[in-house]
Amino acid sequence: MDRFLLHLALLLFLSTNLHTQDSNLSFTKEEIAQDLGFLKLNLEKYHPNLYQYSDKETIHKFFKELSEDIDAPLTTPESFRLIASTSVVVKDGHFAFTPNAQVLENFYTTSKLLPLDLYYDGMNSYVLRNFSDNDKILAGQKVLSINGRAIEEIEGEILDCLLRDGDNKTYPKWIFNNFLRAYYDFCFGNSEEYIIRLEDGKKGIITESVSSLNYTQITQAKAERYPNLYHVNKTESGLKLDIDQEQGIARMTIPSFDKAILKKTYRQKFKPIIKDFMQRIRTSNAEHLIIDVRGNQGGEVSNAIYLLRHLIDEPFITVLFHQKVNKKNYLDLSNRLKKANSSVDGIKKPITKNQFQGNIYVIIDGGSFSASGIFAQALKKYNKATFIGEETGGNAYTLVGLPEKKITLPNTGIQVIIPRVQFNLQENIPKNTSGVFPDVKTTIAIENLIENRDIDYEEVIKLIKK
Q1: Which residues on adjacent β-strands are paired with residue 363?
Q2: Which residue ranges make up each domain of the chain?
Q3: What whole-number distance in Å separates Cα of residue 114 and Cα of residue 130?
Q4: Exposed, middle or buried, 260 (CB in 10 Å: 0-12/13-18/19+)?
Q5: Could you tell me which residues come within 8 angstroms of residue 333 by beta carbon, excluding any fewer than 6 positions away?
Q6: If we measure between CA atoms, which residue out of 126, 107, 216 comes closest to residue 176?
Q7: N or C: at which end does the chain have fewer Cβ atoms within 10 angstroms?
Q8: Which residues contact 84 (CB under 8 A, 6 or more apart)?
Q9: 207 has which bridge partners?
Q10: What is the spatial distance between Cα 107 and Cα 66, in angstroms, rounded to a whole number?
Q11: Do residues 401 and 384 make contact, with C-beta atoms less than 8 angstroms apart?
């Protein structure tokens, strides 16, 4: 997936006429504190899950200490790191930051970007792909530092800025692996040259330099060096169904439930295509259905429910109810939330025509977030599928989403999306919540990625052949 923006809403937000700022400004302590106060006020007014993971006292203390401990002046990247670090206390996967409009524009045009893709396995970061002219930097080498900054520090600073629900770490890890180049630029700035310190199994510790590349140059290098991973015709990577009639296996790939993304990126409409898929599966007499929602960051819950109606053969509930902040009582914890109506709430009936009656296997990872996490949770709740891979990103009990409040912080120009509606998926919501856990957990090593092995799919086939 070669898109920086995590949500289509971000793309729409960033395309509006925003005040353009210099990308190399510095900010005083008073300016940063004012932005933090403005952010906190808007969170209190609009974010229904603000106190889901951290209580009011903890939130207040975090913002207060962050404002008091500012070592000003702060550069544009430093201010982004500090303000976006509020993610670690709010702990919400739809609470998103992007830098000021000029920084974002520069990222796509003139910024001197890191010409490497890295893979972070939760402990260490490794070179995965090299787009530079330095052929001494090889896939599989362990990264120790970039421009003199230890990789552990880079990982920690960036991960603190990333979206997550509660203490679920799979979604920020997935974002880190897919959007590191952008977040490195936003958090640390960019340079003409990058000095990379590496650990090589044969050569020991080595230090190499690479010249920066701009976004267009990296995109071109991806297409040329890794054509199997970066399709020129992206429509090939949309909603997809493969049927192996000999083995009785149907494999459905769902990259998104978002109707706008499906239309714009893949020129597809969800429901007509799923209807066709289900009919083709029925006529093929496939006994096993594999549904791949890895990297599916969500979209319309109604699309997820439409597919569920073909998979769950009894009346079912995906979302119990919705709530939002009562703006008249937003400071009153006991009356802060009020009911919000939604067409996806309550009991849904199965679609009997082309209902799949065989074995269902769902492949999940940290990028299976929002609506795809809701989709997985429903199948898990009704015992309709076996799950393979990694814990889904997000929360299998409660989360928030559209509509959203979009704000620009007055001094730094940092752009923020605050979700406004709470989805309640289960009756009892524990404080320490998680995503949907796999029945068969897989561990993806850097060697698997270099060899282009799909370990998750291999595990599914093992289950089918048992």
Answers
A1: 292, 388
A2: 8-225, 234-314+350-394+436-465
A3: 10
A4: middle
A5: 51, 56
A6: 126
A7: C
A8: 97, 160, 161, 187, 414
A9: 197
A10: 27
A11: no
CB atoms within 10 A of CB 342: 14
pLDDT tens-digit series, residues 184-212: 999 999 999 999 999 998 889 999 999 99
C-alpha dist (Å) from residue 394 to 52, 55, 172, 243: 13, 19, 10, 31
Overall size of the chain counted in residues: 466
Per-residue confidence (pLDDT) for residue 394, from 0 to 100: 86
Q: Return the amino acid letter for 406.
A: K
CB 6 within 8 A of CB 96: yes
Separation of alpha carbons 199 and 332, rounded Å: 54
pTM above 0.85, yes or no: yes
Work out the angle between the directed axes of helices 29-46 and 56-68 (0-180°, nearest 10): 160
Distance CA 194, CA 221 (A): 18
Predicted confidence at residue 428, as pLDDT, reads 75
Instruction: Name the E strands within 314-365.
Output: 316-317, 321-325, 337-340, 347-348, 359-364
CATH superfamily of 8-225: PDZ domain (2.30.42.10)
Look at the domain 234-314+350-394+436-465 and name its fold. Answer: 2-enoyl-CoA Hydratase; Chain A, domain 1 (3.90.226)
Number of H helices, E strands in the chain: 15, 21
Strand, coil or helix: what is 273?
helix
